[in-house]
Amino acid sequence: MGKSPGAWTGMRKKRWPLMILLLFSLSTATVFFIRSAFDSCSISSSSEASIGRHFSEEKGTEITDTEVSKTAQSLKPNPLDFMKSKLVLLVSHELSLSGGPLLLMELAFLLRGVGAEVVWITNQKLTESDEVIYSLEHKMLNRGVEVFSAKGQKAIDTALKADLVVLNTAVAGKWLDAVLKENVPHVLPKVLWWIHEMRGHYFTLEYVKHLPFVAGAMIDSHTTAEYWKTRTQERLGIKMPDTYVVHLGNSKELMEVAEDHVAKRVLREHVQESLGVRNEDLLFALINSVSRGKGQDLFLHAFHESLQLIQEKKLQVPSLHAVIVGSDMNAQMKFETELRNFVLEKKIHDRVHFVNKTLAVAPYLASIDVLVQNSQAHGECFGRITIEAMAFQLPVLGTAAGGTMEIVVNGTTGLLHPVGKEGVTPLANNIVKLATHVEKRLTMGKKGYERVKERFLEHHMSERIAFVLKEVLRKANSHSHA
Ligand SMILES: *[C@@H]1O[C@H](CO)[C@@H](O)[C@H](O)[C@H]1NC(C)=O
Ligand SMILES: *[C@@H]1O[C@H](CO)[C@@H](O)[C@H](O)[C@H]1NC(C)=O
After folding, report:
1. Is 317 in a helix, a strand, or coil?
2. Where does the Glycosyl transferase family domain start and stop, copy by copy (predicted)?
């Protein structure tokens, strides 16, 4: 470390509270800032957006902001500065610790950070416990976000007065008619609709009939945008408004942990101990809510196959372990039982570890060697855990589907395999490849990290969102003057 004792103490002072928080404080309010990696494509926990090269591709403004020093960075004007004093209404379909609402809260705080006036309303059923809702509301109130009832006159007045209204997820569309009623046409021209899901049952007119008339749609990946374009046309006969693809970025807090070697080592030791693995073991982890759509079953089949390959070929490799983070027996009893039976039947229970669902993914990212992203069907909308893992210099073994294809560079920052049963053997081969080629594994991790620094950071996200908000404001203004 070669630092003076003073500097060292300073670093430690800063570091330890954060680590203690990461490790032990799983209470909802405090882990709030650590992005959840769960269920990017579902409504109860949607999300994943990040910002990256795609705007550059579309708008021809390539931003390769590598390794700008922290000082230079903080001197740069915030790209969202133009939102100062603007009134923004955020409409959430729920208030919970799931991806979609957390993402909207991130936007709320980015906007508060530049002095925008931000109002939050939650339209739908409150699925979480009172405690979670209370702590989230307080988190927002503490940062100057106003929280109104979705149905009151205040919500209507705010919608009419606002410079910008953001609807989060397709389901939030129900709020328009239900609350605004005859005022809907006045509000639509300043609505930005943020969409994070890729599933058939969102394509119902009840949710999205006003979609063609809003100022813009902001979608987490090109794949998801394409999906919405074709589905709305084919199923509903409606046209998408101007659509902006906006990839997410990693929070500053996550990057801070990812770049802190001492913190990582401590987290790693802690997790190794809790899993009962040794430092030299190789950990392949899938970090997603356990469900068939996320492909834990196929991953375990591939993992078993890779162990057989290693045995057959008598390869000299450290002992391999599979870690499934995101277990929830109460939610997916049948599927979880199936996974455990498979593990017992194949006698790999000493190599497979199940970890309960948690929002605190950083300790696991600090402890594993490879992230497996095995989402099936259309894949992830974006897959925020993928960029989070890359920040920790982990190579990614991912399905060639959805947002993963827009994040992982096949052969450079990871290896892709097909979705479905056809993907099992390719994934097994890729597991063996990364287990046997240490150099390749480490290089891919480094390349992934470089890619994150180039396009998947918070400031990239702010830049991309700023571009979209400017467009929406411009359109809303031209409309109101027309
Ligand atoms: C994991 O969750 C289950 C219930 O879903 C619970 O019974 C178990 O104690 C939890 N395990 C840990 C280590 O917290
Ligand atoms: C990924 O690269 C490998 C070779 O490195 C290739 O065999 C495979 O088809 C590629 N997959 C995709 C989806 O491009």
Report:
1. coil
2. 272-451
Q: Express each pLDDT in 81-118 by its tens digit.
A: 999 999 999 999 888 777 889 899 999 999 999 999 99
Helix ranges, 167-295 (H)? 174-175, 184-187, 205-208, 222-231, 252-258, 261-275
Query: Do 383 and 303 share a structural domain?
Result: yes
What is the rounded distance in angstroms from the CA atom of residue 38 to the CA atom of residue 126? 19
301 shares its domain with 339: yes
Q: What is the pTM of this model?
A: 0.86
Mean pLDDT of the chain: 86
Cβ contact 352:300 at 8 Å = yes
For ligand 1, atom 10, the nearest C-alpha belongs to 356
In which residue are the tokens 């999205």 written? 208
Domain identity same for 241 and 292: no
Instruction: State whether 208 and 263 are in the same domain.
Output: no
Q: Does pLDDT of 419 surpass 60?
A: yes
Say which ligand is closest to the CA of 397: 2
DSSP class of 32: G
CB 95 within 8 A of CB 101: yes
* Ligand 1 atom at minimum distance from 330 CA: 5
State phi, psi for 142 to the nearest 5 degrees: -60, -30
